[in-house]
Amino acid sequence: MTHLSPEDASKRHVRRADYVSCTVAFIDCKKPGSHLKENYSIIGPGVSSAADQVVNLPEPHGFNIGAAAMPNGITNNLHIHFTAEVFMNFRGEWTFRWGSKGENEFVGHEGDILSVPTWIFRGFTNTGADDGWLFTCLGGDNTGGVIFHPEIIREAAQYGLYISSENMLIDTARGDEKPGEDGVIAPMADADVARLREWTPEQMRKRIVTEADRDFRPAFLDRGLTGCGAEIAPVIGPGITQNRDHAAPITNPHGFSLEWLRLAPGQQVSRFRIPEKMVLIARHGGARIELNETGDVAVDLGAWDTCSVPGDVWRRIRNTSDHTVELVLIASGDHRKRPEFAKEVVAMADVAGLALDAGGFVAPAHLLPVYKFA
């Protein structure tokens, strides 16, 4: 069992005010229409090419959490990722593009989540009226960086910008020395671009979970207890839900699972733990995470805060506000996670007529036999 001190918990609570932007994270940072991008690395470095990118929590999690903030009309140009890239729209209207020339589009709104396949060009533009905000989750501890579209690499050279073979930004205007041809990433050849996978809008729609698509259902063993009954809406992979009727819309391996967690005023998820690292991103403020076996350490999440909980730490999640709160819940690994609830919670659930079957799903307690070979 892992025990967190108040100092440990504070380091793992990255407040919205703690996020530090970088405006020179990528090779298109001087391109007109792209120069006002802000990149954030909250957990892990993500795919930033900037040597001075601030990373709030560098500890490996098996995935990276970041964010992009852009004013209206600003574009993040076409590029390729080698691991999963998931966009979580927390504010604004965004037009996502993909394909060898960005010929396909999807317009996303607040609450939408989009997972883009690896090894295809993708980009996005803030087409909303105000500044927009996207959280991102990238698969793996090492994302491998990115490859920008050949047109962007060629244009960047006009501004003295190059990407080294180690995927770091070289800016000759600030005095960086340009390496030889073997030391920079060259524009991708047309033949290689032509061999990239193609995804139709119909195929991509299966990798999008809009706010209206979410399937919230009671998720946990404690659903019958007073003040409990928290709901989950799965998005990617088998997460921590104990409801057998839940099915994630996006099922291919990402290296993590992702779910929405919803708590009504006064509602809680009773004390539980999982072996995997878990990250919560608060869409709305008013959630409290009480840590350790005694709940002696607490983290209060404001809107857009991020909190990382190590594996095997007991935690209880409560809504302390007078409004419904929603959080994105991300857990490491593509496998199904199996929450272990505290013994007193299991006992109270049994009195309420609920237990977990051998598959780890909530079932009527009176129907479950006691198996001799268990």
Q: Bin the helical content.
A: under 10%
Summed up, the helix count is 5
Biggest sheet: strands, sense, closure? Answer: 7 strands, antiparallel
Strand order of the largest sheet: 1-23-20-25-18-17-16
The general outline is: elongated
Task: Show unreliable segments.
Answer: none
Backbone structural class: mainly beta
The whole-number mean of residue pLDDT values reads 96
Q: How far is the first residue's CA from the last residue's CA?
A: 24 Å
Strand content: 35-45%
Our Rg estimate from Cα atoms comes to 22 Å
Q: How many beta strands in the DSSP annotation?
A: 28
Structure description:
With 374 residues, this protein is mainly beta. The protein is built from five helices and 28 strands. It has a seven-stranded antiparallel beta sheet with strand order 1-23-20-25-18-17-16. The protein has a seven-stranded mixed beta sheet with strand order 3-2-4-11-6-9-15, with no helix packed on it.
Q: What features would you highlight for this structure?
A:
single chain, 374 residues, 7-stranded antiparallel beta sheet, 28 strands, 5 helices
Briefly summarize what is shown:
This protein is mainly beta and 374 residues long. The chain contains five helices and 28 strands. A hairpin with a 5-residue loop joins strand 21 (287-291) and strand 22.
